Structure formats: structure tokens, C-alpha cells
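Sequence only, no structure available. Ideas?
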Amino acid sequence: MEKYLKNHNGLTLLEVLLAFSILTIVFIAFLTFFPQIGTFNQITDEKMRAVNVAKQQLVIVQNDFGPKFINNLNTNPQPTNIYDQNNPYYISLNLIEDIDVDENYYLLLTKRQGLLISIKINKEPELSDVRKLYKVEATVVQDDDSRELTKLYGYIVYRNGGN
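Reply:
I predicted one. C-alpha cells follow.
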């Protein structure tokens, strides 16, 4: 029994408290990263959703709306209701207002999943031979705070004489 009482290889109370204090400080520092990770994940999720919505709208514009719209502009010198949001050709876009015409582009506004999507179609093609390439820019904005989330670019391919 005396052998165990004379053994001084254990830890003192001071050493235990010091080790516990160091571990507590490290643990608290580590815990401060979790809220930042959650915020980062939320921002990333918003951006991914915005990119997906923009891509969906861009595909609709490139494959469905764009060629019909440009064909209508090219075949009718004074087209009727071409800029009207209720035009039956534009139902797939779900426009929230009439198409705005600027000096350099056509502006379309649509809303999907709480996001406002602004689509600009250049009036003049960038390539003009058998095919014409019209640049399209889709900008997605958070509807409640007008914060830009993403911007995508693409082209409408229009062949002379139709789609």
C-alpha cells in the first residue's frame, strides 16, 4: 500500500485545470466556425438556385422564344403586339410586363421561384452569314432585396429564312 502512496506520477489539480482550460478555449474557437459555414452554405444554395433558374430561362429563350421573336421581327416590318406580354408565343417565358425596346437590345422581365430574371437580347447579330447569332444576357436578382445573384450569357441562333 505504501508503494501507491509514494507514487508521484499522477497529475496535480493545477495541471488538470490548465488542460481543461486550454481544451475549452480551443473548443469555443472551433464552435465559432459553424455559423459561418451555415451562412456560406445558404449563400451557395441561393446562387445555385439562381443559376438553375437562369439556365432554364436561357434555354427557353434560345430554343423557343428567340427564333420566333426574331423571325417575327424580320418578316413583319410593323409587327402587331410583338412586344405585348400576353402574346401567345411568349407564354413559356411567363413575362411580368411588356417587352421593353432600347437602342441596343430588347429587355424581357420574368419571375420564377421568387427570383426576378432580366433577359437582354441584342438587336444586332454578332455573326451574320447563313446564321445570325444574337447575344442573350440573363441576370437573376433576389426579388426582396434586389441583390444580383448571377448572370449568364448565351446566343440565339437564327438561320436566314426561319428557324
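The two ends are 99 Å apart (CA to CA).
Hope that gets you unstuck.
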